[in-house]
Amino acid sequence: MGRVVVDVMPKPEILDPQGKAVANALPRLGFGQFTAVRQGKRFELEVDGPVTPEVLEAAAAAAEQVLSNPVIEDVVRVADIEADAAATVASQGLA
């Protein structure tokens, strides 16, 4: 069984009231190093079998047609969760 992650974010020109509320709260909670926050959505799609290029292509199409509102949101990532995690571990020299 494989899993695909899809991340969707508001377009830069769209107001993000949730992100703004979080950005305003962070300094009060001792996290003054952050200057802005944008809040998006994450979807995890399970498939029977491995994540193939065809599965990623289908996930990207679903993201554009169903999971996001293309008027106000951008699909910013469609990736195999396992491959993504392995690449992160390798880039950090933890493997």
TrEMBL record:
Pathway in which the depicted protein is active: Purine metabolism; IMP biosynthesis via de novo pathway; 5-amino-1-(5-phospho-D-ribosyl)imidazole from N(2)-formyl-N(1)-(5-phospho-D-ribosyl)glycinamide: step 1/2
Signal sequence interval, chain numbering: none
BP GO terms, sorted: 'de novo' IMP biosynthetic process
Enzyme Commission number(s) from the entry: 6.3.5.3
Location relative to the cell: Cytoplasm
Main location, first listed in the record: cytoplasm
Catalyzed reaction equations: N(2)-formyl-N(1)-(5-phospho-beta-D-ribosyl)glycinamide + L-glutamine + ATP + H2O = 2-formamido-N(1)-(5-O-phospho-beta-D-ribosyl)acetamidine + L-glutamate + ADP + phosphate + H(+)
EC top class named in words: ligase
Function of the protein: Part of the phosphoribosylformylglycinamidine synthase complex involved in the purines biosynthetic pathway. Catalyzes the ATP-dependent conversion of formylglycinamide ribonucleotide (FGAR) and glutamine to yield formylglycinamidine ribonucleotide (FGAM) and glutamate. The FGAM synthase complex is composed of three subunits. PurQ produces an ammonia molecule by converting glutamine to glutamate. PurL transfers the ammonia molecule to FGAR to form FGAM in an ATP-dependent manner.
HAMAP family reported for this sequence: PurS
Family label: Belongs to the PurS family.
Quaternary organization: Part of the FGAM synthase complex composed of 1 PurL, 1 PurQ and 2 PurS subunits.
Protein known as: Phosphoribosylformylglycinamidine synthase subunit PurS
Gene expressing this chain: purS
